[in-house]
Design brief:
Helices cover 78% and strands 0% of the residues. It is mainly α. Helix 1 (2-12) packs antiparallel against helix 2 (16-33), helix 3 packs parallel to helix 5 and helix 4 runs antiparallel to helix 5 (76-92). The longest helix is centred in the last third of the chain and has 29 residues, at 157-185.
């Protein structure tokens, strides 16, 4: 377990080669010891490292393996994280509907295991996926609802996160609307200027 923690330490320092090497070495040890729980957690953490590196194929394989192991063990909170990783992969590949379904599963998983923090954080990813799929209004509604739900946050940290998300989505929508209005005023009626749906498809979803 110590090696697994050290691997995550290297990951937080963005020393990914060392982190991945240590995850692989640690996973081998856990297999020899017959420890399925830490094997699954190792897969989960390494999938996050590959997401940081935008290596989505590797991330997907590890996240699916982690999800299977964690669900078999009944570890709901970490299974929910694996679902989020898979949703990020799907979103990055343009599979918006799949991403939304995975996030719905994650939300339900966090609800069932009584984890309100991760359930609310899942709304961040939901809003970003809606935006990625061109559903800007729904993205903004999701972010605003999540912001309202964090009104009683004693530290204000989660509310600040959603305040920032709402502000970014509002600024993005305002920018698109301003560009569209300018296009309509221009000669030719805006030929060649992308509308809101076309524009938002160029966005990417990344993990925080």
């Amino acid at each position: 377990e110590t090696d697994d923690n050290v691997a995550y330490f290297f990951q937080m320092k963005r020393e990914y080669d060392e982190a991945i090497h240590m995850y692989e070495r640690t996973r081998t040890a856990f297999r020899e010891w017959g420890d399925p729980c830490h094997i699954a957690l190792c897969d989960l953490d390494q999938s996050e490292a590959h997401l940081d590196l935008q290596q989505v194929e590797e991330a997907e394989v590890l996240a699916r393996r982690a999800l299977e192991g964690l669900e078999d063990l009944g570890i709901g909170q970490e299974a929910g994280r694996a679902l989020i990783h898979l949703a990020i992969v799907a979103g990055s590949q343009g599979r918006v509907a799949d991403s939304q379904q995975l996030l719905d599963r994650a939300r339900g998983t966090f609800r069932d295991c009584g984890d309100p923090v991760w359930r609310r954080l899942t709304e961040v990813y939901c809003a970003l996926v809606y935006e990625l799929g061109g559903q800007s209004e729904r993205a903004l509604e999701t972010a605003r609802a999540a912001r309202a739900a964090t009104a009683d946050d004693p530290t204000g940290a989660r509310r600040a996160l959603f305040e920032t998300l709402v502000a970014c989505l509002e600024a993005r929508r305002s920018g698109v609307e301003s560009a569209a209005a300018a296009s309509r005023r221009a000669p030719g009626g805006g030929a060649g200027v992308a509308g809101p749906r076309e524009s938002t498809k160029r966005g990417t979803t990344r993990k925080t």
